[in-house]
């Protein structure tokens, strides 16, 4: 279920909480994604989003490995 | 006192036998018509000027966000100005390293990477090749040391982005020389010390050689004639600043740059905002912001106003608007024009956009008049006789100011002569790397 948040529509579960909204401050529209637990923000442009859609499940699973980026040690 | 105006032949330089054709075509008091009409001269200009010296391309404010990009021109080169995710500005040449296709088609956008529509080769917005489809055909990933082309050198001054296609040469600051101070003057009218050129560019195709524009920008002889209609309908006092009675000066700033310095006139009136045709009361928020930012110096800035400077070869700052001149062919160029926007000067910015639309917009009354002259000038020099254009006006009354710059009166052709001196020095320089 979504709720109103200044950072956009909230997508959350017991594991993560993010807000998404369209950002139009750039020269073309982007998706603004905010990790509500840390405040970290990422912008995703159309080509990056399309690439996410086509990401193989295996690659996506690799990104979910906590040691992949955020807790690399 | 009676002065005899020298004829061009009196002041003709001695041309050595076998000297450059530019020594013959460019003389102190006259220039030859073929400089504007000869396609071989235009081709040589591309090599020796436009592909070599620093050329104004755009402004950092056109790519405000990380991954923003805009399409620009650098003479005949289609260039993509990008801001990477770290905030650095790049000038990429819009050409795929595979089959040479134009990669970007939109005028502007936001993307961390660009994908060529022909075979899918994909580049970071820094020009680096990210990958290509069906990579086994190349022996796998990351096997090709290719990328989009790049303008060899990119540098900014006060947010104005310049590019040079030559890997080596003088620095941008050396190129700008005394013209830097004029850009500083413009920026000094922003309460935040910063200008933006993000109001959008008007694009005027002009059937004229680019040099007619560069010469005209600081020609103070034409406004009373060419712009009589706009001065008349608006009741503008600007026309009177360009007459023999004016205390304004035309200054050769060196390196091909020149200005019409109207400050002596405005200092005489000592009225803040007169340069903008208004009073402090009518733009009180702006004046207050200026006073807060600059204290006692604010009044001087608001009295002296914005510069009117032509920066060689293609950046013209005309007080409230900026022009970017780009050549297309010997008889064609494009004038891109936009309103200056002062950061922290919202009240003034709205007026600057309105005034710019009125002067250089599609139905504007200033640029259309100039363009009519440029195009008739081009048709005129295509005629056989007389062969020469006269640039002697004011030669007899030039002097040197306290900073060592040659100055003439408000209506003198001092700026043009500076332009041609510099042009000749570039065109007679050794043509490195070119085989005839």
Description:
The complex is a heterodimer of chains A (73) and B (436). Chain A has 73 residues and is an alpha+beta fold. Chain A has helices spanning 46-53, 57-64; strands at residues 4-5, 8-12, 17-23, 30-35, 41-44. Chain A is built from 2 helices and 5 strands, in the order E-E-E-E-E-H-H. Chain A has a 5-stranded antiparallel β-sheet. In chain A, strand 3 (17-23) and strand 4 form a beta hairpin. The mean pLDDT of chain A is 88. Chain B has 2 domains: 55-156, Rieske [2Fe-2S] iron-sulphur domain (Rieske Iron-sulfur Protein, 3-layer Sandwich); 177-427, Naphthalene 1,2-dioxygenase Alpha Subunit, Chain A, domain 1. Chain B is an alpha+beta fold and 436 residues long. In chain B, a hairpin with a 5-residue loop joins strand 24 (399-400) and strand 25 (406-409). Chain B has helices at 21-25, 39-50, 172-176, 179-187, 210-216, 223-226, 228-234, 263-269, 284-294, 297-304, 346-360, 367-381, 414-427, and strands at residues 26-27, 30-32, 55-59, 68-74, 77-83, 89-93, 108-110, 113-115, 122-124, 129-131, 149-150, 153-157, 160-164, 195-196, 202-206, 249-254, 257-261, 308-311, 315-318, 321-329, 332-339, 341-342, 388-390, 399-400, 406-409. In chain B, helix 9 packs across helix 10. Chain B has a 9-stranded antiparallel β-sheet, with helices on both faces. A 5-stranded antiparallel β-sheet of chain B has the order 7-4-5-6-11, with no helix packed on it. In chain B, strands 1-2-23 form a 3-stranded antiparallel β-sheet. The chains are: A alpha+beta (73), B alpha+beta (436). The A-B interface holds A 25-30, 43, 45-48 and B 63-70, 106, 108-113, 115, 122.
